[in-house]
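[Meeting: bench + compute handoff]

Bench side (C.D.) handed over the final construct sequence. Compute side (W.E.) agreed to return the predicted structure before the next meeting so the bench team could plan truncations. Sequence as handed over:
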Amino acid sequence: MILRAIVALFLFISASYVWSEEPSSLVQKQQQARQQQAELRARIKQLEQGIAKQESMHKSADLALKESEAAISDTQRKLQQLSEQQKKTESSLQQLKEETLEQEQAIKEQRKVLADQLRAQYTGGLSPWTALLSGDDPHLIGRNLSYMGYVSSAQTRMLGQIQASVARLEQLAQQTHSHQNELEQLALDLTKQENELKKQKDKRKKTLAQIESELNKQRAEAQTATANEQRLSELIVGLETEIKLAREREAERLRKLREEQAKAEEQAKAAEQAKADAERKLAEAKKAEEARKAERASKDEPVQKAESPVASSQPPAATGSSGGLQKNLPWPVSGQPLGKFGANRPDGGVWRGFVIRASEGTPVKSVASGRVVYASWLSGFGNIMIIDHGQQYMTVYAYNHSLLKEVGDTVTTGDTIATVGATGGQVEAGLYFEIRYQGKPINPVLWLKSQVR
């Protein structure tokens, strides 16, 4: 009985030891995961600061150039408008001068005709009173009075025409004066705009000189696209290194956990062996007791059955990490793909992925499960997100209008991670997409479904 109690107590202590390790290991795993996430974010921040430092010196010069070139464009447009208006005014003024000459000639001729009529009437002595007092034949007097009435009407009409011509001449003079004033104002405005254009050109010249001075420090970079690709590659290599270190730490933790599990299993085996030894000794003691009872010819005593030992337990096995990518992946966004993997880009470099044209604000989906390792703005790529899928596979999503996930977040296939935009200096909205293996780009067309859904 005492031996059975000792065996049961030993098995109970062994089982308690195994069970006591489970919550401790879970807490330790949680703490280590948080620590790894903090270390990864700190490293990413260092990489961002290094990249931003290289780009900061160009931003102010680019902005000044943009403002100067826009001002020059506006001034050139105003000069063209003023020049066209000046030509129209000069043409109108010339027409006024020609019409003025015509009116002056018409007045001169009308005055001459009227003067001739008055002179002829005076020379002939024609007047109503002269005709009535002449004593001539009444029929002749009537004809003379009729002729004088006709001459008088013609003279009245001629005077009206002269007055109308004089009024039109005064109107032309006023219009000519107005056009001359307008032409003088246009000349002043044109001179002002030419001076403003000269100032803007001088400002642009200084701005270009400033930009050229700054760009001389980076002439080794042949084109902007090549520099952007280099920065992205450096970032991904840095992330790969950090992820590798994190996985090595995770593997070391799992190794220690397996060692602890093996130790617990050995203790369980020892407990089982102790149980078997105790049962064997108990059987031998029972056999000896029965032999003694047979020798004494005493009554048989009931034999108590051995108590069942306490069952042992083992901690659960650790789960594995993400398993990389599989082919026939869903497209991150529906749209028209542009660019061919490996072909030369118009702005320099080669295509490491391709652009999918889509409307701004369209949801961007994750093509597989994984963890966000980068989510920020990067020169040349705008708002960019990078997801680690395990087994050294990564996907890149750039030009986004907004990022909906943060570093450390886990995503599954089809989760909305961003929205389509035109950031990073793009003209049209779209999504730039890459797949990388061991830090090197691979053809995404071979991994996506054959048709865009």
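W.E. noted at the follow-up: The helical segments are 2-124, 128-133, 138-215, 224-296. C.D. will use this when planning the next construct.
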